[in-house]
Automatic annotation (TrEMBL):
PANTHER family: PROTEIN SXY (PTHR36121:SF1). It comes from the Bacteria. Coiled coil: none annotated. It comes from Companilactobacillus paralimentarius DSM 13238 = JCM 10415. Residues 6-85 form the TfoX C-terminal domain. This is TfoX C-terminal domain-containing protein. InterPro entries: TfoX-like, TfoX_C.
Length: 91
């Protein structure tokens, strides 16, 4: 039996602060996050105009890890490189 995770805080890497930010861009469940993907979600979060230090590479890794169901530290190095390149282009 597969457990369906719906609340964002049930996903790895999604704590209270990130969950609050995600709710501001209408990402309130795991399905929406997965549909948007980490990169589009990150760009939408950046549009909130919080202090720049809030939008770090770890946030992007955390979003990707949440989508993949793993800690951001467990992401494959190739994917981290892709995300880092995206981050640099969009910072």
């Amino acid at each position: 039996m597969n457990l369906v995770i719906e609340r964002l805080t049930d996903l790895p890497n999604i704590g209270k602060v990130l969950n609050e930010q995600l709710s501001k861009i209408d990402v309130t469940d795991a399905a929406t996050l997965k549909k948007l993907g980490s990169q589009q979600t990150f760009l939408k979060l950046k549009s909130l105009k919080a202090p720049d230090r809030f939008y770090c590479i770890q946030m992007l890794y955390s979003l990707e890890g949440a989508i993949q169901g793993v800690s951001y530290t467990k992401l494959p190095s190739e994917r981290k490189t892709e995300l880092l390149n995206f981050f640099r282009k969009n910072s």
